[in-house]
Each structure stands twice: as structure tokens, then as C-alpha cells.
Design goal:
This protein has 237 residues and is an alpha/beta fold. It contains seven helices and ten strands. The protein has one domain: P-loop containing nucleotide triphosphate hydrolases (Rossmann fold). α4 crosses α5.
Length: 237
């Protein structure tokens, strides 16, 4: 069975009298250990989909199954606990707390779990090693480069050994050289740790780094190279 199944998921918002539907009966299966990229123009619903999979938001219709668990049926309290155990989130703007060191920023998700200090230390050091920042553990965000800050964000996302890591435009604020380094790091973590990644991006070169590419087209998820037949008008005979 697939690790993630998006089963006819729709999401709509109201803006005055207008109904906005970024996802329209979307279907998606993701296998454990896959690295999947999601392309689409700004406003097409990429972040919406990530937030639904991460349990931050709820669909208007449909079901989301993650590792045999239907997260759409959970209460908010249970969903928060599930998210702490199963989801890592990489943000575009790092979202580091400036008064905390790299070590302390990475440790934050572990404080939500029943774990003693020695186990937290072991995990944080493993995560720092994975992103090649063990020698920056006691540095504050202001003492780090943009690329190093994003590495801290990645370490924070993987420190709980999550079921899936969702990355929302993780290279959007980085220069070309740093972007290449971060994407190579994500690839390496995917291979070496077997971490499942779903990355939203507007950058076609970044998307191509993933093992599988998807795009959002009029609310539907389409594999790279395919056409959304639901969006193609039939020929007039």
C-alpha cells in the first residue's frame, strides 16, 4: 500500500461571492522513500496541498491517508500529536527563532515528544551531522549564511525521523549556487536516510532533481509529460 494516498481531495475557499478551488478531486499516490516534486504557478494550490498532507489544514472533500491512517477523521488534538510524530516541514524563509542557537532550533520538535534529554541530544547531533553543520551547533541564525540557515531548517525537519517531509519552495530565497547545494543535500538525505520528500517549487530545474515530477493543472495533479484530459475540451465532430 502507498505511504500517502490523496483520495478525490477538493479544497475551496470563499472570497466574497467568488469560490476559489485550488484542488478539485485531486488523486495522488506516493510510495515510501520517493522524492516527489510539485510544480505550478503561484496561487495554483501547491502550498494548500502540502498543508493538507501535513495536517495543518483540512480538505473540503475527500480523504487523505498517510501510512494507513486517515488523517481527515482526526480531531484537532489528535492531529497535532500525529503531526509532531510524522511530519517534517521545510519552509522557504527558514522560520528559525533568532534567540535560539542552531542546536536549540533543531531540538524544538523533539520537545513535543516523550523523549529524555540524552535521546534529544543524540538525535540533534545526528541531524546536524547529516546536514554538515555539527561545528555550527552553538551559532545563532544571525551568525549563519542563508544556506546554513536552510540547512538548520532541514535538520529540524528530519530530526524526529518523520514519515514524510514536505518542503515549500525550499530554495526560493537562495542564490543559484546555494540552491544547487540544498537540492543536492535533499537528494542525499532521500537516498541515505530513505526519507520521503514532497517538494513544492516553481523552478523547473529544481523540480527535475526529484525522482518524480508532478504539476498542478486546474486543481488536478498531473504526472510530468501527461495532459489533464479533464481540462481539455473534446473535439467537435
Amino acid at each position: 500500500m502507498s505511504l500517502i494516498h490523496i483520495n478525490r481531495v477538493s479544497k475551496f475557499f470563499r472570497k466574497g461571492d467568488e469560490k476559489i478551488t485550488p484542488l478539485d478531486e485531486a488523486e495522488l499516490w506516493i510510495e515510501r522513500g520517493e522524492f516527489v516534486s510539485l510544480m505550478g504557478a503561484s496561487g495554483t494550490g501547491k502550498s494548500t496541498l502540502l498543508n493538507l498532507i501535513a495536517g495543518i489544514d483540512r480538505p473540503s472533500a475527500g480523504r487523505i491517508i498517510v501510512d494507513d491512517v486517515d488523517i481527515t477523521e482526526m480531531s484537532r488534538t489528535k492531529l497535532a500529536a500525529w503531526r509532531a510524530r510524522n511530519i517534517g516541514y521545510i519552509f522557504q524563509t527558514h522560520n528559525l527563532i533568532p534567540v535560539l542557537t542552531a542546536y536549540e532550533n533543531i531540538e524544538l520538535p523533539l520537545l513535543l515528544l516523550p523523549m529524555n534529554r540524552s535521546e534529544r541530544q543524540r538525535r540533534v547531533e545526528l541531524a546536524l551531522t547529516a546536514v554538515d553543520l555539527l561545528n555550527r551547533a552553538n551559532h545563532y541564525p544571525r551568525q549563519l549564511s542563508g544556506g546554513q540557515e536552510q540547512r538548520v531548517g532541514i535538520a529540524r525537519a528530519i530530526v524526529t525521523d518523520p514519515t514524510v517531509v514536505v518542503a515549500d519552495e525550499p530554495t526560493g530565497d537562495l542564490d543559484a549556487e546555494t540552491t544547487s547545494q540544498i537540492l543536492s543535500l535533499l537528494q542525499r538525505l532521500n537516498v541515505e536516510l530513505g526519507t520521503t520528500f514532497l517538494m513544492a517549487t516553481h523552478d523547473s530545474e529544481a523540480a527535475a532533481m526529484a525522482g518524480r515530477q508532478l504539476r498542478l493543472d486546474r486543481g488536478r495533479l498531473i504526472e510530468a509529460g501527461e495532459r489533464n484530459m479533464a481540462a481539455v475540451p473534446s473535439e467537435v465532430s
